[in-house]
Amino acid sequence: MVAHKWNFPVDTVEAIACHHIPGKAKSGSRLPHIVCMGNALAHKLGIGLVRRPGLNLSAYPSARVLGLDALKIRDLADEIEEVLEVEKQIFS
């Protein structure tokens, strides 16, 4: 894995490797769950190559681990969209 070759910290390497199934992470860290939810939010918002607007993120086990209910997830999504819009304006 590139993260390992680049000497990323072990927790970061594990979070990247396990972000699709964060429950398999051995460290007990919340980082794989954070990466999982970030990835899922990107998919839901159509950021990147994968677009899955119908995802129910509050049903993800990682949402429960991180204490994210539907309202908190919607607030995060709104904030991400606002920041992206500002960044697009800056860099376009």
Provide an overview of this structure.
With 92 residues, the protein is mainly alpha-helical. The protein has one domain. Helices cover 59% and strands 0% of the residues. It has five helices and no strands. It has helices at residues 2-5, 10-17, 31-45, 61-65, 70-91. Helix 2 (10-17) packs across helix 3 (31-45). It starts with a helix and ends with a helix. The model has no long low-confidence stretch (mean pLDDT 95).
What secondary-structure arrangement, pairings included, does this model have?
Elements: H1 2-5, H2 10-17, H3 31-45, H4 61-65, H5 70-91
Helix pairs in contact: 2-3
Write a brief structural summary.
The protein contains 5 helices and no strands.
Strand proportion, as a percent range, falls in under 5%
Q: What is the β-strand count?
A: 0
Query: End-to-end span in angstroms?
Result: 33 Å
What percentage of residues falls in helices of 4 or more residues?
Answer: 55-70%
Class computed from helices, strands and strand pairing = mainly alpha
Mean pLDDT: 95
Q: How would you spell out the order of helices and strands?
A: HHHHH
The shape, in one word, is: globular
Q: Evaluate the radius of gyration.
A: 14 Å
- Main β-sheet description: none
Please tally the helical runs, counting DSSP H or I stretches of 4 or more residues: 5
State the low-pLDDT regions, or none: none
Summed up, the domain count is 1
